[in-house]
Structure formats: structure tokens, C-alpha cells
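hey can u check if this looks right to u? its 204 residues, i copy pasted from the old doc so theres a chance i mangled smth
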Amino acid sequence: MTFSSLVACSPFALMWKRFVPLKVKIVVWLVLKERLNTLVMLRNKGIQQNVTCVLCNSQDEPISHLFLKCPHVISIWSTIRHNLAIGELPVSVNELWTTWKAASIAHSVRIGWDLSVMEIFWLVWQERNNRIFLNKYQSSLILLGSINSFISFWLTNITEKKWRTFARHSGHKGVAGNRAVLVRWSVSSAEPPKQDAVQGEQKE
């Protein structure tokens, strides 16, 4: 079986059809498959000794902690849950994208939800790496602002034609609903965030 056929039958197949930079898709894919090189993963490979999460400095850094359970990230998810009026999040990133999403997120707005989740995963991973390799720190509030700014950038740069292309490729007919799921928790500013992901997005 080829890689493309494996992707096509994967529960994460729609992720590859989202209009985001390839490098963002790769990070999200590794998160969902629980293959991203977190500190715990590196320890399991015999590379890393200290596995304390650099975002909270209190617990180990497996994927579920870094992207869902870390106090630094919980505050971001809490804001999103409040603004989108959704219930408790699942305990794993895999469920967040598959069974939980199917039961909790309306079919008509899942494109917008998917883009939101992908942006959060990407920016949390960027923040984690900036702390480790560049010794640069941002609060969860600033990180949430970056995510909001990123979404606002999408809202002002994705044309109606592109939205309909997303919907057609993903089996969704709705356009307005997917816009709305982003608008409901984005800020009014449309200034592009200073992230290299935007550059990649424009080149795709």
C-alpha cells in the first residue's frame, strides 16, 4: 500500500486538504499520530533526560499534555470553548480530531474548526520551540492574541472561491458557517501575524 493510499483511508485524511502551509500540516499530522518529538518522545528514544514541560515547568511533556492539558494551553482552549459554546475537550489529540469532533462539532462548521485546531497546534509548537532554542517566552494571553491575529488574517485573505473549494474537497456544502466559527473567536484586527507560517501559506 502506497503512502497516498494510506493517507486517503486515514481518519485524518481531510487534514491534508485544508488550505494551510505544508509544514503546518506535517506538524499537525505528527501530533495526531503522536509521533512528534516532544521531550518525553526524545527520552523514549534515549536522547533526552529532562522531560519537564517548558510551558508550565511542572509536569512531563507528552503530546497530550503539551497540546491539551498544560495550564498554559488550557487557558487558550477555555477561551475557545467559551466563545464557540462547546463542552469539555477529550483527553487525547486523536479524539479531538476524530470521534469527539464528530459528536461535538456541527458538520457545517468543521472546516473552520479544523483550521482553528491546526493553527493552535502549530503556534503552541512554535512557542515551545522558541522557549527551548531561543529563550523567548510569551504568555498564554499573547499566544491567544497571535492565534486570533492569524485567524483574522485568514478571514480577510481567503476568497469566497477558496472557501467553496475547501467545502467541495471536504464534502461540506456550507461556507457561511465555517466563516462564522472563526469570526466568533477572532479579533477585529486583520494585521497578519509575524509567523513564517504565513509566508508558507502565501506560497502554496
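The chain has one domain: 14-203.
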